[in-house]
Design a protein that fits this description.
The chain is α+β, with helices and mostly antiparallel strands. It is built from eight helices and 22 strands. The longest helix is centred in the middle third of the chain and has 15 residues.
Length: about 425
């Protein structure tokens, strides 16, 4: 195969199109919910601001809507626009019967969920929520310096950490063991690193298991339970709910919970921000969401799949604009390339063809190979660390990948470019 670097001067149509057109793949959309009926954490405003900022300033990111209005959940179909619900230190009843039912249906349909800190101390009159979050809150000793053990570094929520992580936070204890519902631990507390005079280690382990759970995830079966096994801690379905078939079942999406996030300082900490960023990205990458595929069932929740439209801007409903984040397409004089933080004057555009001057079969932009066919739209995925080269997308199909795709439309030519 011949590989030749092509000067943009040889592609005047490309320059003209780039000067007039740039479009980034639509971001996913999350609902940040922070209503409190019981204790209210002073760090909630900082938490909300941080989550929104992480979505705006990272690629891939997300758009956000923030709400503290329980009646939003009462609106039929309202939750379906979101790829994930992020509960930030929600406390107390939090939702009406109608709102809780709509949330349960959203989860059963494959919607995503992320619970942070006191989110495990809410909706305890709905056992399905206890199974979703993993376990209900029991108590915590005084806020303290503690050492956490990283249990599963393969998960993106902790991949940036070492074997241990020192934090200053509340060490939550739980009324049941989240592993009984298939939750996979990513963080556990080293109980020898801080004092807890309230109960004995053995008594705590009898309820929540050992090692002491702090953060966990699950894919699929979010509300499932074994009718022959009682887990306890308020998570077992009530007979009256089972008779009415409203106890909650299934839910093939993704969920994540972390007990951390009590202080403002924690939300400003880069390691904690990486924890939140990796966790929420993972939840949003669930294949059950409508935004994950152009062929997804229309009954699935999530933002509408839109492979080549701009992300939504702030229209007054609390959603974020994308004017200061993500990758962009740039062109300058005779230079054509993708601006992903590199200000090099050298264009990084190549045409790959079988031989001679034949029509190209692929295009390489900044090292990422993209299939090419006149008049069609294609996409390339972000290459994995283990892959020798990125996979090529099927002809004529623009697909959503784990990295934001930038689309260049050049007359009859359109090619998807991955910007890292």
């Amino acid at each position: 195969m011949k590989i030749s670097t092509v000067s943009p001067l040889a592609l005047p149509a490309l320059l003209l199109a780039l000067a007039a057109f740039s479009s980034a793949e639509a971001k996913k959309k999350v609902l940040i919910y922070s209503y409190t009926e019981g204790f209210r954490h002073y760090s909630i405003p900082t938490a909300v601001k941080t989550i929104r900022s992480l979505g705006k300033n990272n690629t891939p990111g997300w758009d956000s809507v923030h709400s503290e209005d329980p009646t939003d959940f009462n609106k039929d179909g309202y939750l379906d626009q979101f790829d994930a619900l992020v509960f930030v230190s929600v406390s107390g009843k939090a939702l009406s019967t109608k709102g809780a039912a709509n949330m349960r249906k959203y989860i059963e349909a494959g919607g995503g969920y992320m619970g942070i800190h006191e989110a495990c101390d809410a909706l305890d009159d709905h056992a399905w929520y206890g199974r979703l979050v993993g376990a209900y809150f029991d108590y915590h000793p005084e806020i303290c310096h503690a050492t956490l053990n990283v249990e599963d570094r393969s998960h993106p929520s902790v991949a940036h950490l070492g074997k241990t992580w020192k934090v200053y936070d509340e060490m939550y204890n739980f009324r049941s063991n989240p592993r009984d519902y298939g939750k996979q631990l990513v963080l556990s507390a080293d109980e020898s690193s801080y004092p807890d005079p309230v109960t004995s280690k053995a008594d705590r382990a009898a309820l929540q298991g050992s090692p002491h759970p702090i953060a966990w995830y699950k894919e699929g079966g979010q509300l499932d339970y074994n009718p022959h096994v009682k887990v306890g801690g308020g998570t077992d379905p009530k007979k009256k709910d089972r008779k009415k078939h409203v106890e909650g079942k299934g839910g093939d999406g993704r969920s994540f919970y972390t007990a951390l996030g009590h202080t403002n300082a924690s939300w400003r900490d880069s390691d904690f921000q990486g924890h939140i960023l990796g966790a929420l990205r993972w939840v949003l990458e669930s294949p059950t969401l409508r935004s994950s595929s152009p062929d997804a069932d229309s009954s699935r929740p999530g933002s509408k799949y839109d492979g080549d439209s701009s992300s939504s801007s702030d229209d007054g409903d609390g959603s974020d604009s994308d004017d200061d984040g993500g990758a962009s397409v740039s062109s300058s004089n005779a230079n054509v390339g993708v601006d992903a933080g590199d200000s090099s004057d050298t264009a990084s555009l190549q045409l790959l063809s079988g031989s001679g001057d034949a029509e190209p079969t692929s295009i390489v932009v900044n090292g990422h190979r993209v299939p090419y066919s006149s008049g069609n739209v294609h996409a390339a995925s972000s290459p994995s660390s283990s892959a020798a080269s990125p996979p090529l997308a099927a002809a004529g199909a623009l697909q959503r990948w784990t990295s934001t795709a930038v689309t260049l439309a050049v007359g009859a030519l359109a090619c998807g470019v991955v910007a890292l």
